[in-house]
Predict the structure.
Amino acid sequence: MSTQRVIVVHLRQPKRSDPNESRADPFYEFGSFGCTKCHSRNLMHPRRAHELDGARFAFAQGGPLGFRLVHLSPPARVVKHRDRCELVWTPAESPFRYDAAPVLVNAAGESDFPALLANLRRVFRATWPARFSSAFRSRRTPLPATVADEIVRVFDRKRAKVSPDALAASYVDALPYSPRKPDGDRETTLAELRAKAAWKKAARTLCS
């Protein structure tokens, strides 16, 4: 049995039609996810976020090359803000470039993770990426032990042997294409989000 809980984070692609799209979260280089509240209705729902403590998070980025595992966090802890919850972890490391990241599944049904692929065969959708999206878009439960072990083993092996040019120099490199308005000062953005979360007036602390 796996001693590590692994939860998939289904990341959407940047909206090409949105001139203000930055797709700032996750803040990989600061070991942070959740401050933008984008996943607060499912994965990061405030009333259940405590269930995520200690899990590792597999950040699955979709795009024209299929879904790729751009990052697997160390065990994370939940930070409770007034109106949202944040996952934080150490050490904070650069993610893979999208085009160099391990393949979760692509349109041809190829994957670096056979156990994951076997699980996706049970999902009835027209394409492999659609199967993955259907399985994980709203899911917040940990992966089965055999799949979790495989995710950890394969990712950690590839990360240990990665060449520098396969890692993202900017968070934009972990995306399938650049958003319309890339964030050029992510440290300030994260600080402002945390300040807003900490000081926003609320009737009660939703993460309790």
Q: What stands out?
A: Residues 200-208 have pLDDT under 50 and may be disordered. Residues 6-16+26-155 form one domain. The chain has four helices and seven strands.
